[in-house]
């Protein structure tokens, strides 16, 4: 599954959000439930976030050009950061609505229909999240991953709404409805934090996980002509990874032989990291020069 899978996931996300908005709006108008309203607000934000995801996926899939030689992949973490802002905004709006109902409690009507709509929402959302996760596993799309986290949180909130509606029906107390509104608001803030943290890591060029860096070093050192490596730098743009390193070789080697060795190592790295752009600088072993590793060690 290529970038086309990410595009299909983004279009599916927009379609699912539209379907859920219409069904939840009807359920809220019929029931006057804050819990249902909380889910409706969340789905409305989902539509905006999914539209941003769609735009970012389409933009990020553009190839590198003369002005963006590293590609356009960072459009995805930027979109995920916008999603996080949308989620926080929906949490604030929901908290205000729940507070208003706490001051002026109103009974819930047509609980049965509201329950049916929320059950339908869970089925649609579960199908979408399952599809998104397959796409993320195949493409590594950060924007789709952020959208998936958002919709996965919807599964929990929709289930909580059903619990609240059942408790209101059983006890006759609308405070279950109000309390659930506040709980969903907190859950949305937590989801936004997860999305924002991952997006900022990419935008700030955080290194790949330590296990990935260890695997890179293992592959490089496994070549019999390798005498060492230093200044390994890695990062991800969201749609691609970047690996840069200084490869230490015997100083007497010809330029042609040094290139052949680096080319073999590059092929092995690409096999292990198929999304990666790889840059290898060859230099004589034991050369005493300025190194990023030394600079970082002094800073530590």
SSE order? HHHHHHHEEHEH
| Unreliable stretches | none
Tell me how many strands there are. 3
Helix-strand makeup class:
mainly alpha
The radius of gyration computed from the alpha-carbon positions, rounded to a whole number of angstroms, is 25 Å
Shape category = elongated
Main location: membrane
Domain Cation efflux protein transmembrane: 11-204
Family: Belongs to the cation diffusion facilitator (CDF) transporter (TC 2.A.4) family.
Organism: Roseiterribacter gracilis
List its salient traits.
Alpha-Beta Plaits; Cation_efflux_CTD_sf; cadmium ion transmembrane transporter activity; single chain; mainly alpha; transmembrane helix; zinc efflux antiporter activity; 9 helices; three-stranded mixed beta sheet; 2 domains; 300 residues; Alpha-lytic protease prodomain-like
């Amino acid at each position: 599954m290529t970038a086309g899978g990410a595009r299909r996931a983004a279009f599916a996300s927009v379609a699912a959000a539209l379907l859920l908005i219409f069904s939840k709006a009807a359920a809220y108008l019929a029931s006057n439930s804050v819990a249902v309203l909380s889910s409706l607000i969340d789905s409305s934000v989902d539509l905006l976030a999914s539209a941003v995801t769609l735009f970012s996926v389409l933009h990020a899939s553009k190839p590198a050009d003369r002005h963006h030689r590293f590609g356009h992949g960072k459009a995805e973490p930027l979109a995920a950061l916008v999603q996080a802002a949308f989620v926080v905004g929906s949490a604030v709006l929901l908290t205000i609505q729940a507070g208003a109902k706490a001051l002026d409690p109103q009974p819930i009507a047509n609980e049965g229909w509201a329950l049916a709509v929320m059950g339908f929402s869970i089925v649609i959302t579960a199908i979408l999240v399952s599809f998104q996760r397959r796409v993320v596993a195949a493409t590594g799309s950060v924007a789709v991953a952020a959208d998936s986290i958002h919709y996965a949180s919807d599964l929990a909130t929709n289930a909580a709404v059903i619990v609240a509606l059942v408790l209101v029906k059983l006890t006759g107390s609308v405070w279950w409805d109000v309390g659930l509104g506040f709980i969903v608001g907190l859950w949305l803030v937590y989801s936004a934090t997860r999305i924002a943290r991952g997006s900022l890591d990419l935008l700030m060029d955080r290194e790949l996980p330590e296990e990935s860096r260890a695997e890179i070093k293992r592959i490089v050192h496994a070549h019999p002509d390798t005498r060492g490596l230093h200044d390994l730098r890695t990062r991800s743009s969201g749609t691609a990874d970047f690996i840069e390193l200084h490869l230490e070789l015997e100083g007497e080697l010809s330029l042609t032989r040094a290139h052949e060795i680096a080319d073999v190592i590059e092929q092995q790295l690409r096999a292990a990291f198929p999304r990666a752009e790889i840059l290898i600088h060859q230099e004589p072993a034991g050369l005493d020069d300025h190194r990023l590793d030394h600079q970082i060690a002094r800073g530590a």
